[in-house]
Amino acid sequence: MYASPAISPARLGLIASCLGLLLWAVGYAQGAALSADQPAPPAAALAIARDGKALVPIVIAPVASDATKAVAAELAEYLGRVTGGRFEVQAGDGAAGPCIVLGTLAQFPQADLVEPLEIRNGHDGKEAYAIRTEPGRVLLLGATDLGASHAAYRFLEMVGCRWFFPAKEWEVIPSIPQLAFGQNEISRPVILSRTIGYGCGFLRDGKNGAERGRGRNEYEAWCRHNLMASSLKTHSGHMWRLVINKNKAEFDQHPEYYALVDGQRREGGKFEVANPVVRKMVVDFVLNAFRKDPDRVMQSVEPADGKNQSESPESKALGTFSDQVFGLANEVARAVQKEYPGKMVGLLAYGWHSDPPAFDMEPNVYVQMTVGFTYSQFTDQERMDLWATKCRNLGFYEYYSVFPWDLDRLPGGRAANLSYLQSSIRMYAQRHAIAVNAESSNNWGVHGLGYYVANRLMWNPEANVEALVTDFLEKAFGPAAPAMRRYYARFDHGNKTLWSKHELAMAFRDVAEAAQLAKDCPDVLARLDHLKQYLHYNHLYWKMDHTKNKDERKALTLAILTHSYRTRYTNMNHWEAIRQLWTGKAAEQFGEPTWDFRDPSPNKPWEVQAPVTHEETEENFRQGLAHFQPQLVTPRTFSEDLVPVQFAGAPAIASTQSWQNELPRYAFYSVAGEPLQMDFQVGIMPNSEEKGEPRYTISDSKGTPITQGRLSLQEKEHHLVIKVPHAGLYYLTISKSGGGWQIDVAADRPACMVVAKDWNIRALARLQDLYFYVPRGTRQIEYLWQGGPHKVFGPEGKLVLASEADGEFVIVPVPPGQDGQVWHLSVTGVRRLWFFNVPNYLAASPNALLIPREVAKADELSIRQ
User: What pLDDT sits at residue 660?
Assistant: First the structure.
């Protein structure tokens, strides 16, 4: 990089961030960010543009497909925007340079690229590409048209182009009037089928014909630019009902074809798996699908959703429901292989057929494991390992964002957890996954960075996530990158941030700081406007959640719907999900039928066509800054060196807690080496379909397991007596499984809950009063509370505070003489609790508490001997 001595480094950074690099540039490659192969050494650079004029044409084959012609046209357009030149697209053989050659290996043969771009097993390699710089030309070649497309957009990325989110504002096109390129790279995706799809579909705007299809087009452009595609088109969705509908007359004439449920043949989505006529219908349905569509690679044989599988003796004789479903899949697969060699059948490992069958799958069966809604007798890890021994073609169905779960709000769903994305995708790749399909939403305000990173990891699971994040921050936000790094880190679940009103206040301030830092960068400010509009959505939602006044809730609901509609093309919120899943409920809740998108009236109150202006955005943002104020606390750190203490005259209370999910840890103490004793009830959730048996582990104070076991669902009650090697501290952990569980510990035995920052508390019954210790010298108790109303009681049992805070820091003054004692909480429901300045250990009674040793000594407490 050359910089005039007259320009300061700070000013140069601003110019680079806002206007692009005005220099003679040699294209660069971030091999670790995308490529699954090591890039070749740099080649001699080809001059592509000088002084804003194009120096080379783009050459395609005379027989190039329409798809390649479209890619060539877009490549020319973007190179023109980068350099200021006008690039022509020409048909030719590419032999005479200088030129950029775009096409397939068959169109532009290169003997030494035949093996690197080979298509293996019929699919692996359809997306393979090579970027090669030779004297006088740059080759952008693929094994197929799709691979050639990938080569073109990867080349543009090497030049510096980025398409972070699917809106023009999130496109980053550098300005490089003097452009040269000299890099080589060969790559193919590790995971062949990669999808981040919208659960409720694309935007549907019937009012504005000019924008109809805009949402789909922007999404598809994002996929194209970021190489999200499929070498193998998987098909594993629900299909049995289609067979029934196709053969409805026969099913009506023969009720025995339907599944037998509760003694009756039920017309629905399930059929009698054991019936040979029905099985032939399934085979014929699949074969006809391939007959009608010769390009189809896979056809689903997945059951209809829900339970209601046949309970007939004939079906049960086939084995478990997994044996029935996957046995039918194998039968169909054999018929397909005979008539259409190389074609496949697909289905899910999901719901009541999550577990593998007793037999291996046929080589042309594809099984896609879901990471939720699995009624399995195994842990997730066990299930994955077992399936890897049964099926050679595995895929995974993820839930990155589901609107009813995260409501497009901060801190978001799984896609907002970068460490989870990295570890899970690597785990899938290690099991030779050929597909990852992630159910998501068009909510790039909270999940955009996660979607962008996940797509790169699906191509190359070893991609450098930190490098990707840094590249995103620096290119999208320029001089505001440091502030925006803090912003995105706040709601990254992997950071275990205590999401709260305070963090929302700080997020507003991060964006305010970013806007000031980027005040001379209109492209950055446009992106920040999108995020400001998204923060306003969170502001409105927060206010709606925190008012009990029905009129206010109604007004805020309409404000949210209207704002979401007006900002729908920013893709910050998934308006289509809001339209489908919320407008009808809101209409019913508030007695406003015209709010429902299905209502025939021509104009909806929320249907305001004018986009939110910059001025409105700024005013809304100022209101958010004023509403969300930082809440200051003074955190203390305590050790996990816990000891049992004795409080004279304290009530003796047995410990009883019921949980839906896993609890991070219980801490127990063996005072004199006596065994640890506890009682469990398992499978206590009514009508639960969970089959898995909870696993428990007892570890010593260093985390070394001393015993492990399962709590069988065949027996509802379990009394455990765990012998320990010596007196001291031990921990209990229990896995999520078995439809809920309850733990009981005798009164005053030293046993308490260890609260964790990321503990999502799901109690199945009202919790007992929770006792905690307030160290001497504490002048106020500071904690985060998410949940229903709760009360705080002092050491004498007197009410100190009744709070309705939710998602906020709570401050409780400690009167003189009330420190150095045990307090307790009375709660109706809690989702998250974290003490900032008192130990995070809760017990059913004072004498069950375990307290950090340093606190017990400093406060001169009576330690049990």
Answer: 82
Which pTM value belongs to this model? Answer: 0.93
Predicted local confidence at residue 653, as pLDDT? 95
User: Please, which pLDDT band fits residue 211 given cuts at 50, 70 and 90?
Assistant: low
Distance CA 251, CA 522 (A): 64
Q: What is the pLDDT of residue 355?
A: 96
CB neighbours of residue 751 within 10 Å: 25
Q: Name the residue among 359, 333, 365 with its Cα closest to residue 346.
A: 365
- How many residues are recorded in the chain? 865
Tell me whether residue 503 is exposed, middle or buried, using C-beta atoms within 10 angstroms of its C-beta: 0 to 12, 13 to 18, 19 or more.
Answer: buried
Q: Is the separation of the CB atoms in 642 and 849 below 8 Å?
A: no
Handedness of CA 581, 583, 584, 588 (dihedral sign): positive
Residue 181: its pLDDT value, please?
97
Between CA 182 and CA 138 the distance in angstroms is 8
Average pLDDT, the chain: 92
CB 536 within 8 Å of CB 559: no
CA 640/CA 665 separation, integer angstroms:
12
Tell me which residue has tokens 């896993």: 662
Torsion of Cα atoms, 225 then 227 then 232 then 233, to 10°? -40
Share of the chain above pLDDT 90, in %: 85
Give one word for 172, left, alpha or beta, with left for phi > 0 and alpha for psi -120 to 50: beta
Per DSSP, the three-state class of 369 is strand
pLDDT digits (tens, 9 = 90+) for 499-536: 999 999 999 999 999 999 999 999 999 999 999 999 99
The amino acid that residue 797 corresponds to is G
Q: How far apart are CA 148 and CA 74, in angstroms?
A: 13
Instruction: Note if the bond before 189 is cis, omega within 30 degrees.
Output: no
Between CA 649 and CA 796 the distance in angstroms is 11
Question: Is residue 384 predicted with pLDDT exceeding 60?
Answer: yes
In a 13 Å sphere around the CA of 180, the CA atoms on its Cβ side amount to: 14
Q: CA-based angle 103:109:110, to the nearest 5?
A: 110
Closest of 119, 174, 183 to residue 145, by C-alpha:
119
Distance CA 454, CA 460 (A): 10
pLDDT digits (tens, 9 = 90+) for 683-734: 888 777 778 888 999 999 999 999 999 999 888 899 999 999 999 999 999 9
Q: What is the DSSP letter of 479?
A: G
CA distances from residue 445 to 25, 415, 533 in whole angstroms, order as listed: 33, 11, 9
Closest CA to 322 of 261, 391, 264, 269: 391
pLDDT digits (tens, 9 = 90+) for 621-673: 999 999 999 999 999 999 999 999 999 999 999 999 998 877 679 999 999 99
Q: Take residue 273 and report the two structure tokens written for it.
A: 């798996």
718: which residues sit within 8 A by CB, 6+ positions away? 679, 680, 681, 682, 711, 712
Strands (E), 611-716: 642-646, 655-659, 663-670, 676-682, 695-700, 705-710
Strand order in the sheet with 728-734: 705-710, 695-700, 728-734, 663-670, 751-754, 841-842
Alpha-carbon distance of 34 to 585, in angstroms, equals 43
Q: Let me know: does 487 contact 507? Beta carbons within 8 Å.
A: yes
848 sits in the region (left: phi over 0; alpha: psi -120 to 50; else beta) called: alpha
Q: Is the pLDDT of residue 617 over 70?
A: yes
Cα–Cα distance for residue pair 741/306, rounded to 1 Å: 25
At 133-179, the pLDDT tens digits run: 999 999 999 999 999 999 999 999 999 999 999 999 999 999 999 99
pLDDT digit string (tens) for 421-466? 999 999 999 999 999 999 999 999 999 999 999 999 999 999 999 9
